[in-house]
Structure formats: C-alpha cells, structure tokens
User: What shape does this take?
Amino acid sequence: MSEHAFEAAERAAVYRAIAERRDMRHFSGGEVAPEVLARLLQAAHQAPSVGLMQPWRFIRIRCAELRQAIHAQVEAERVRTAEALGERSDAFMRLKVEGIRECAELWVAALMDGREAHVFGRRTLPQMDLASLSCAIQNLWLAARAEGLGLGWVSLFEPAALADLLRMPAGAEPVAILCLGPVETFYPAPMLALEGWTQPRPLEDFLFTDAWGECR
Ligand SMILES: Cc1cc2nc3c(=O)[nH]c(=O)nc-3n(C[C@H](O)[C@H](O)[C@H](O)COP(=O)(O)O)c2cc1C
Assistant: This one.
C-alpha cells in the first residue's frame, strides 16, 4: 500500500461513490441547499483539463418558461431519435430519458467559445476540450451521489437550437442538460439495464495486451 493512500474508510467512500453513481431520471422535486450546490460546482471546477484550459461553462436555468422550452426541445429530439431507431422505436419511447420538469436544479453544461486558441494537447485531438468538460461533469456526478443527490445527463437536444435559446456566443457549444436534485431512491443498476434496453459488458471484454483484441 502506498504511503500516500487514503485511510481505508476514505478509500471505500471513493469507490462507493463510483459504484453507486447512477444516471437518474426520476426526481422528487425539493431543492438543493446553496452550500451543497457550491460544493458540487467546486468539485466540477476542480476537474482536470487539457492544457489547463478549463473549457467548462455552467448555466443555471432558473426561469420556469426556459425550463419548459428546454423540455420541449428535448421532447422533440426524443421523438426524432425514436424515428431513427426504426424497429426499437416503441421500446425507446417507453423509456424515461430525462427528468427535466421534476428535478430541483436544471443546469446546462457547455464548451466555451474561442477554443481554437488552445492548442496544447489539442493540435491532433481537438476533442480533448469535450473530454475535459466530461471530467468536470463526472466530478459533479460523483460529488452529487456522495451528497445523496441524483444527477441525470441529457444529451437529447439540437445543440444549435439550445445555444440559441440560451444566447450563447458563436463557438460556444452546449454539451449536456443536467438534471440535479433529491430522489426517492437510487436505481440499484443502470436504468437501461433494469428496463432491458441493453446490458453492460464485463471489464474483461475491454482489456487487451500489446494489440487490439489480444488477451494474453
Ligand atoms: C455522454 C452521456 C450522455 C448521456 N445522455 C443521456 C440521455 O440523453 N438520456 C438518458 O436518459 N441518459 C443519458 N445518459 C446516461 C446513460 O444512459 C447512463 O450513463 C448509462 O445507461 C449507464 O447508467 P449509469 O450512469 O446509471 O451507470 C448519458 C450518459 C452519458 C455519459
């Protein structure tokens, strides 16, 4: 054991947050205390980022009409997604894929404008800005679970339309609608697995040695 390791209970808490984090779509309204919200946002902001560019921007949606408009955009995309799914369309429409109207807090996570000025780590991999924002969202997700709050990541929307709605500058890009707040209970497993939409595969299927597909 490394001399830098956390205490056993602290390690267990980290692994527990990772294992018990769930993508939540069922919320029980209520609210998130300001000091808790501040901790969650600070956790997001402590994420790693390529070249320390900190490309994340978070927009809190407080206006009820705006929340309704965002829900309408997601609903329209949900229908388009179902159409694109063909024979699985009906099964998809039966899934709950967002909790926008019920969650205590609604946030939109976006990539900042002017990202082309950041070359460090992005010359060949420009998508590292998205990877960095994803790290911030994951921090938020894990911290929320530790605080007993659910978070749901919604990506069913047309980015240009949402950017327009939120008056984002050219070059900025919305990436996630985040539903956050109290929940009755956390799903014991990914909801898509519980609903029989798909099943997760074990880690062994994804580990290779020396070359893709090689398991030695
Ligand atoms: C990038 C990303 C986008 C996602 N978009 C949606 C979404 O639009 N709607 C939804 O219901 N779940 C969405 N999810 C949640 C996934 O369905 C979920 O993470 C997956 O089924 C595993 O479940 P778990 O997060 O509870 O472990 C998204 C997750 C990620 C990481």
